[in-house]
Write a structure and sequence with these properties.
It contains four helices and twelve strands. The protein is of the alpha/beta class. The strands form two sheets. It has a six-stranded parallel beta sheet with strand order 1-3-5-7-11-9, with no helix packed on it. Strands 2-4-6-8-12-10 form a six-stranded parallel beta sheet, with no helix packed on it. It is elongated. The relative contact order is 0.09.
């Protein structure tokens, strides 16, 4: 499935979820349907997070939302011991979720990478280039932590989950790049980069985190945006020279922040 299609499906899902929450709040507050407005809103919100996390196998938000739902209904006869404190349920859900991410995160990423490579083969864009770089998490497949390194080659893929990363892109035949960020912070510098045939493509996907991208101001940039509830901010301006190397930049942002610097 194409990246823009996935993003649109995510936008539709959260759009429907927010509409349901808003309509539910109006119906409860106006007395059309009985219930506690806080309970209805929180149930709808955490149920939406639970469903979306289950679809994508994102264990931490999945278990956090489940813990909040259990906390909301612990007064009902659902078998939760009264002596179990609510804060312990939340902390345990985070710890268990992180543990599951560490255990199964590598498998998820390998499956995701295999799907992307299959799509690339079908599109005729993959040529088995040994310079294709795929980097996850802290550089060792853990999906978290701080790691600084450089990526050299004409194609690259950078993915960050919950940690902090800094990447330096260097190369003389840059063609295609893909950057993904979930909940963490990611900074990418383009240094001493030359495009193959003076044209390249870069796609950026950001969920809830923060991305800083530093691009040469000597490049001309054709930029398209798909922004949800977050921010996409540009600092400075790219080149307007007709002969400047051209970067086709596509940014998909959910609820996080993407900042693009031209320097």
């Amino acid at each position: 499935m194409k990246k823009h299609t996935v993003f649109k499906l995510n936008a539709i899902f959260w759009g429907v979820a927010l509409l349901a929450i808003g309509v539910g709040a109006i119906l409860v507050s106006s007395g059309i349907i009985p219930g506690n407005i806080y309970l209805v809103l929180m149930t709808a919100l955490f149920a939406a997070i639970f469903i979306r996390s289950l679809i994508g196998f994102h264990f931490v938000p999945l278990l956090i939302s489940a813990a909040h739902l259990l906390h909301l209904y612990r007064g009902c006869d659902i078998g939760i011991p009264e002596k179990l404190p609510s804060w312990m349920m939340i902390v345990a859900s985070v710890v268990i979720g992180v543990g599951l991410e560490l255990i199964f995160g590598g498998l998820k990423k390998r499956i995701k990478l295999a799907i992307k490579e299959k799509n690339a083969y079908q599109d005729g864009n993959y040529q088995g280039n040994p310079n294709v770089k795929t980097i996850y998490g802290d550089g060792h497949g853990n999906g978290a932590g701080t790691y600084t390194d450089s990526v050299v080659g004409n194609n690259f893929h950078i993915e960050n989950g919950f940690g902090e990363q800094t990447r330096y892109i260097r190369g003389t035949e840059f063609c295609n790049g893909h950057i993904e960020n979930g909940f963490g912070g990611l900074t990418v510098y383009f240094e001493d980069v030359k495009m193959l045939n003076d044209q390249a493509n870069l796609s950026i996907e950001n969920g809830f985190g923060h991305i800083n991208i530093y691009l040469p101001s000597s490049w001309s940039v054709a930029m398209t945006e798909e922004n949800g509830m977050g921010q996409i901010v540009r600092h400075g301006n790219p080149s307007t020279e007709p002969t400047a190397p051209r970067l086709n930049l596509h940014v998909e942002n959910g609820m996080g922040k993407v900042e693009i610097y031209f320097n």
